[in-house]
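RETRY 2/3 - previous attempt timed out on the joint model. Re-submitting the same 531-residue input unchanged.
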Amino acid sequence: MSGVLLRCGGGVALYAAVARGGFRRYVTYRTATAAGVFTNTVFGFILTYAYLALWDERPHLGGYDQAQALTFVWLGQALLATVPLGVNGGIDELQERIRNGDIAVDLYRPADLQLWWLASDLGRAACQLLGRGVLPMAVGALAFDLALPAAPLPWAAFLVSAVLAVTVGFALRYLVALTAFWLLDSSGTAVLGGLAATFFSGMLLPLRAFPEGFGEVVRLLPWASMLQVPADVLLGRYEGAAVLGALGFQAGWAAVLLAVGRLVQSAATRKVVVQGG
Amino acid sequence: MWVRSTLTYRASFVIMALGNAAGSGLEFVTILLMFSHIDELGGFGLPEVALLYGASATALGLADLLLGNVERLGARVRDGTLDVLLVRPAPVYVQVAADRFALRRIGRLTQALVVLGWALAALPGDWAPGRVVTVAVMLVSGAAIYGAVFTLGAAFQFWAQDAAQVQNAFTYGGNAMLQYPPTVFAKDLVRGVTYIIPLAFVNWLPALRLLGRDDPLGLPGWVDFLGPVVAAVMCGGAALAWRAGLRGYRSTGS
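RETRY 2/3 succeeded.
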């Protein structure tokens, strides 16, 4: 019993160290982070004016007032690199290791492959949120009238939601990376994964502003967990216990996708043995 | 060589080209989704916005196809592979642009041309030779302006090696801005992309002339035809910046 506990404790310490490593690794890219902040801010301004024109024509589109719509824009820019809501970043190295066979070494390590990469990705996300998330959001809040909550509780709920958003994003990217076991070159699936994340997360337009029917279906897909749900949590679209429902939706998708990742991984590792001959 | 190498993996090439087309196409899908709720955005109808989108995206697609690789210069400076190009008997700029030439970018260009073609067909008016020439000049000088921005961004990377993202703010960010009518934006922003970084000459000014609309800054009419001049000046400036950057380059090893 104490042995199991010890192993669990050691495990937590190990993955915490991996997460810290993921965090620290991204701290080193200072110029890149500054350049990213600049780009996110520019895009934030452009989208803000486009949304202002759209909400002028159609006030309360998707049930958002103008300030809420603009908050959605700047939140999207803040989470773009964190979740991430576009390119398949963060675990390119895993894809490369699968492609060149180094993955065989990783599988012999006394650590769980998926948990290892999840911990590393959470560390990366924390660094990106602080580096590339907070500043554009602050610029947006200074330049425009945003609907940010004043109470601490919605912010706390949002933070939980953001962690779940990163987890769902990771689970999806992990699945994309695993396709390299079969395709060798997974850059094609990575492109498709990035496109799906851009479109179905609400990054281009809030999913509530999608045409009815289509919008309702899209809001049930896992990608909704990556921006639409965290944004709605921050904007106070869920009241009381409904917040827990929204977080549960995200947690449910995270659990399902991580489990699928595990199944695919065990199928893939059987293939590695064959390849290793 | 890079064309042949990418065509070797045909399935992968097709997926990447389609992905490239779909990726840029999503921007237009967003506009379509917006127009499912509205008839006009900033006073412009869907075919007019499609013209702005198609013209800017085609110009960017052309520049990206020919010169898009120069944005990887920072990576070359970091890992020292730029030095290899310096000793070869060919202009460094041509080598940087041609190395890993990505034919898949044809996807973005094709998608942009489809939207542009639809917009031109949907807009009313006859096709006098003058209008055809205006469209052609708009696309070529637009591509040259974007190409100059790509090059300026690359020259900047001689100093700030991992700042490739800054360039994206002006190329892809500029493209995102130019696809909406100028009436949507604050006057100061429109002034910025007219006088400081003259992206407005990529499509706004010539397209407003085609559509018979006044530009929001109230500039005299002949300014609409300055696209080629602006493009030439920008390319000259970009060439100077590139040469200054290359001359000041110190290899990472030294």
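The interface with chain B takes residues 29, 31-32, 34-36, 38-39, 42-43, 45-47, 49-50, 52-54, 57-58, 61, 185, 187-188, 191-192, 194-195, 198-199, 204-205, 209-211 of chain A (CB under 8 Å). Closing ticket.
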